[in-house]
Amino acid sequence: MAARGARAAGQRAVAVGSLPVRRLEGGRQAQLRWLPARHARYVEGQNWVFEARYADGDLARSPRLAEELLRLKPEVIAVGTMASVLGFKTLTDTIPIVSPVLVDPVGFGLAASHARPGGNVTGVLLTVEDLPSKQLALAVEMVPGTRKIGLLMNPGNPTHAARRGALEGAATTLGIDLIALQARVPDHLHAAFETLARHAVTMVLALDDTLFFNERKRIALLAAAARLPTMFGRVRTSRMAD
After folding, report:
1. Distance between CA atoms of 57 and 52, rounded to whole angstroms?
2. How many Å is the maximal CA-CA distance in the chain?
3. Which of 42, 123, 193, 228 keeps 20 to 30 A from 89, CA to CA?
4. Is residue 82 within 8 Å of 59, Cβ to Cβ?
């Protein structure tokens, strides 16, 4: 997205970069721009500006767009995915990076510990103890007799490999055969569901991902056509797929 005008001397730049996802809907973007305005001393266009770039689902564009944002010398970077957090972290150790969706920041080397993280990354930690086992147990409860479950992953999401490992461990414990299929772009979804149907899975678990959120209605249609109950990682995604 084009910059919102040149930054005048003394203005503060808030860079909002959720690079792997599509452009935010108008309401969500307006909400992000409104946050600094809650404080009387911040007036957009006078002492702060809003800059945003989106890769529109094309991960290959993310590094260039991240570098473009950093050339604007923002005072803070707000991002909405772990892929964006990791991408910006490789480029700066000084500018604060804020995200509402931090996953295993210690494991990814973004924080020294949960108690004393250090570094320049902060945000909301998304952690649920023993989540993989709980998700699979819920899947079995939803479809009694389930012994084969499809797993929909995005290879471009840096958190999915670890989640797959945890789910495979939980599946072994529960006696479930987990069939993993990858979808990096929207056009891969149709083939993924066709393959899962051929494997005779009884339901599908879609890992939490911005691609799957953006394509939730398409996934719902594909799942209905294949007669495959599908579980998303977030209740909000499931509701908005209706």
Report:
1. 15
2. 66
3. 42
4. no
Closest to 99 measured CA to CA, from 206, 17, 1: 17
CA-CA distance, 141 to 111, in Å (whole number)?
A: 37
10 Å CB burial of residue 71 (0-12, 13-18, 19+) is: exposed
- CA 130, 132, 134 angle in degrees (round to 5)? 70
- From CA 198, how far away is CA 200, in angstroms rounded? 5
Q: In percent, how much of the chain has pLDDT > 90? A: 29
CA dist 67 and 56 (Å) reads 16
- Structural domains in the chain? 12-125 (3.40.50.2300), 131-240 (3.40.50.2300)
Nearest of 218, 136, 227 to residue 174 by alpha carbon: 136
